[in-house]
Each structure stands twice: as structure tokens, then as C-alpha cells.
Amino acid sequence: MVGFQEILVATLSSILAPIILLSIYRLTLHPYAKYPGPLLGKLTSLRAAYYAHNGDMHLDIERCHQKYGKFVRYRPNAIVVNSPEGYQDIYGTGKKVKKAKSYKVHGITNLIGIQDKKDYAKQKKIMQPGFSDSANREHEPTMIRTIDTFIEKISENETQEKATDGWSNPKNMTLWCNYLTTDVVSKVIFTTSWDLLTSTANHGITETFKTIVRLTGVLHQWPTLRNYELSALLFLPHLAWSAPSLKKFSLSVMSRRYDMGEKDPSIKDVFGLFSTARDPDTGELALAPLDVRRNTGNFIIAGSDTTASSISASFFYLARNPTAYAKVAQEVRSAFPSVSDIRAGPTLNNCVYLRAAINESLRMAPVATQPLWREADPGGCIVDGQQISEGLNVGAGIFSLHHRPEAFPDPYKWDLERWIVDPSKDEEAEKERIKEMSRSFAPFSVGPRQCIAKNFALMELMLTMANVFYQLDFESAGKLGEGKKGAGWGREREGEFQFKSYFTSYMDGPMIRFKKREA
């Protein structure tokens, strides 16, 4: 008769033997076995999932590159590369890669989640007109009206406490920038919005957005994609609630939009474009109602928290750099005769200090800091001289790319002057320096899968900051968001804006107070 001890040993052996064999394979025979990296990362993707969950993935990747070099084996089937050549080889046009299978967590008919290149190109052609240059000109009045409301609200006192010398009470700009950008993008897509700037009723949606991108970031690193919805419910219930919450918020605004469309069929917005687009091959509706909801929801999240993070970072750094602040303020205030003249176009584009400040904020606090994993096509691909086998993943960390000391001397210092041609030096050499630096700068990614609303986002960034500088003065009102001693590796630099690297970046702060300028 077989005893309990024998049964236990047999059971443990049947469990441990495959794990041991798989570990030996991953450490010795796997195509990525030659690349250095943390031991646990070579054995399991749970290490990456841990850093995605706590929001420190960008710092962990930076630390790995400093320890192991340009190529790091970050997961058993994935390496990260830190070089401009490698970045272009992964994300540039015509490369032999596709989006990794992990993108299925976005929905296989969602633009961001489509793996097949032809399917993606077809759907992008349908959606691109919603954010084309001509469409952006139509969106601009809506954007400016919402920015006007934003400026009115941030310059108000929210408490009964009497203002000091005309200054507002301190505002948490991560919250207020999220209210602004969510209202802008929802009005552009649906004509209506949740009115976050003027009502507290729907402020809970910002926590939903934050949680859904955190959940998405973890699932991108999860060891298996099989039944990932069930995995989220079982292992990440504190995050999984965000999916039905997002659906509820999305359906509420879509319902209002349907009602508005019935009363006024002439309404033109992005939702209307997506809802009525026809497949050029069949003449049928290109997107089913569920696909419209998923894609419009994706655009709202992508167009709100990412732009909000960039505006928040701009406030953080400009409020702490008085010389840069003065240069941007003087430039904007002298460029436009009146606030009504602040519009997208040549004058705004010629505000070089404003654009430099925004670029430097995007460099220091990029909005997509987790590696955007790509899978090598059949036959494999070459990345910075290295052969990547078919089916394996490769990616790059934007934070590390943006902090390469070879491209950005003193990389952890915010310095808008690095983007400005120094008139005391040779002009051609300066232009070449900036061109070379720009090879390591990719806040919106590059190639065919870069953000299709890039120009819309830049317009919002430039118009928001230009209007704020023209109408208001602002200053720092606390240390929220700063690095501090004892905060952990990479978080101790006091002049650096800290953020969490979920699927997109999330900040808290800065605290800023405002005062209306003298007429």
C-alpha cells in the first residue's frame, strides 16, 4: 500500500520537475539566455508584473541598464534595448515586428490592440480623419472654450479662506489637468462631457482611469494571457473593478450623445465619424457598436491622462525654474496682442521657449514609460545589430532613452536651454547637436503605431500653457510630487517630478497657486 509520504513526494515531484526543467531551459538554452538581466526576470514574468503593479517599472529598467548595459533580459521572452538605433529598429516604419500578444488585453478590435498590420492600417485609415489637421482646426474652438473654463477655475479660491494678495488657494494640478483634458477630449469625441471642471458629480472617473491603466499595465506583463479576465478577478480584484466602472461611465456619455444626435443629426464629432464610417471594401458599417464604444473609450483615456501628465509636469518644472519661467512668460506675453489672438498657427509655433519647456517636461516625465512590447515576425528581426528570434518580444523603456547621458548631458536635470540654439556657438553645430539629441526623444513613439492624435495633444499642450501664461501668474505652493531623501532608488532627486509607471504615467501634484495678471 502506498503511504501518504510517497504520495506527497510524487505530487511534489510532478509539480517541481517541470518547473526545474523549464528554469534550466530558460537559463541555458533559450535564445535570450546570452543576455544579462536580473535572475528572477530570466525565470518568470511575475517580476515585471510586480514592478508594473507598484509603478516603478521605469526606474527598475533604468537601474537594469545601468547595471547590465544596453541589452537587458527583462522577462523570460523579452529584452529591453536602450539606444536610438534599437528604438528605431523596434518601432520605426517597415520593421519586421508586430504588436505583442499582450495587446489583446485592450480588445482585439480596439485600434491599440490590433496585432495584424493590414487590419491596423485599415482601421487607422477610418479613424485618422478624426484627428487630422483639418479636424483639429474644427476641434480648436471647443478646446479653447474648455481652457478658458480651466483658467477661470484654477484662479478661483475653493475655500472660504480669504485670498492673499490676489493669489488662489493651492491647486493639485494633476487633478485639475485631468479635469481639463478629460472635458476637452470627451467634448471633441461626444460633443457632451462629464463636466469635470464645473461639477464634482463625476470626479470618480479620474480614479477609474488611473486604475484601468494600472490594471492594463500589469496584464501586459502577466505570465499568461489565457483567461486574463479571470486572472484579473482572482489576483487583482483591487484593480479589476475599474473595467465595469469604465463601461458604466462610457455608456452614460454615449447615451447622452445618442439623444443629442436624435435631436440634432447635424452634430459633427469623432463619435459620429466612427459610428457612420463605412468599410471601403464592403460598404457595410466599419465598426460595430461595441467596437465604437471600445475605441472611443480608448481615445478618451489616451487623450486625457497622458496630456494631463504632460501639462502637470510643465507646471512642476516651470514653477521651480524662475529663469525659464521668465523667458516663457515674456515670449508668450509679447507674441500675442490679446488673449483672443492665441490660436494654433505660426505665432504659437514660433514660441520656441514654450515649446522647449514642453519638450523638456515630456523628456523628464514621458507619458508611456512601460516598454511597448513588439513581437518578431516570421524569420525574426535585427535590433541594433542583434538577431531577435521569431515570436520573441523586444521593447525599449522611454524613460531610459530620454535619460541617456550621451544624448542629454546631466540627464536628470530639467533644462529647457538644451532645446535652444545657443547664439554664441556655431549655428550648424548647434542644429546638429539638437538633431542628434532628438534621436533619443520619442514622447509619442515613432513609426506606423505612433499616437494618431499626436498633433491634437501638442495643440492642447501649447494652447493651455500659452493661455495660462498670458492670463495668469503662478508659483509653487508645496513639495507634493518632488523626490525626497529616503523615497527609494531613483526617487531621491528633489528637483525631479515623480510619477508611477502604469501603462501610462500617473503623478500626484504639483501644488500650484495662481493670480490673475494686471490688465
Major sheet strand order: 1-2-8-5-3
Strand content: 5-15%
- Strand tally, please? 12
Question: What CATH architecture would you give?
Answer: Orthogonal Bundle
Family: Belongs to the cytochrome P450 family.
Pfam family, one: p450
Transmembrane segments: 7-25
GO molecular function: heme binding; iron ion binding; monooxygenase activity; oxidoreductase activity, acting on paired donors, with incorporation or reduction of molecular oxygen
Written description of the protein model:
Helix 3 (46-54) packs antiparallel against helix 9 (204-221), helix 7 (133-154) packs parallel to helix 20 and helix 14 packs across helix 17 (352-364). The protein contains 20 helices and twelve strands. The protein has a five-stranded mixed sheet with strand order 1-2-8-5-3, sandwiched between helices. Strands 4-12-9 form a three-stranded antiparallel sheet. It has one domain (31-161, 168-423, 433-493, 503-514): Cytochrome P450 (Cytochrome p450). It is an alpha+beta fold and 519 residues long. The model has no long low-confidence stretch (mean pLDDT 92). The radius of gyration is 24 Å and the shape is globular. 51% of the residues lie in helices and 8% in strands.
